[in-house]
Structures are given as structure tokens and as C-alpha cells.
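Hi P.,

Sorry for the delay on this. The queue was packed all week, but I finally got your sequence through. Input first:
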Amino acid sequence: MTHPKEEKTLIILKPDAVHRGLMGEVIGRFERKGLKIVGMKMIQLEDALIDAHYAHIKDKPFFGGIKNFMKTSPVVVVALSGINAVDSTRLIVGPTKGYEAAAGTIRGDLSLSTQSNIVHASDSVEAGATEVARFFKEDEIFAYKRNDFDYVSSEEVF
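Then the structure:
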């Protein structure tokens, strides 16, 4: 049984996370929060995938720089699942501009930049579903129960 507020979301560990050896640190923060990794792989981004993922900013003057940056090394794409996964993930990640992010967030602790801000995170439930489907095939997403994290529904309590 899944919780009615269980969501899927996508994070991308960007080239700066890979280059700086921060992959385990970043992924561990989501796991410690109680989110499940339901899909994960390292990939080299191709132009078409970058264009699709960043279609909302494709016409911006800074898009070329982002595209080049995202191709400097492989990235790690991670599908996460959990109760309120999108909002929980956004809290853990912090604001886009690393220099504005609070200490304790990924960007607050590990980034001072806007572009090199360690990680992408889906910004809505709809975007999470779309992005997970963009980067993962159905057979690359796994369902399982974490042994260390369980929820109790209100029906079971009262």
C-alpha cells in the first residue's frame, strides 16, 4: 500500500557534484530524510535530452552556458519516492543560488554559484512525474519497502 501523498521526483547530480566527489554526500542526505531511491544511473547527457529538460529556458541567453556545463562530465540521475517527496527534496536542496541558500541545505553547504549548484530538483509534482519519465524507462523504476522507514495512516491510529 502506498501513502496518498507519496510522490516521485527527480534529482540530477550535476557535473560539479561529480567532479568534486560529492555524489555520496548528496545522495545520503535524501536517504537520511527517508526518501527511497527507486531509480539511479550515471549518464552522459546528449543535446536532445538537455534541450527537452531545459525547454523552459532554451530561449534565454544563458542557456548555451548551461548546456555546455551539463555536458562536461557524466551526471547521476536519481528518481526518489516518498511522502511529499517534491517539497522535501526542495527543502534539502535549498534555493537555486547557492550563495542565498541556508546552511544545512545541499546548496548552502556545498555551492556558492547559480549554475554550479550541485543538483537539479523537480519543482512540482507534475514536473517530477514528467522528469522521471524523461530519464527512466518503466523497467528502471523499482518498488520496494524501506525497512527503516514506515508510515502509519490516520485510519490505523484512530
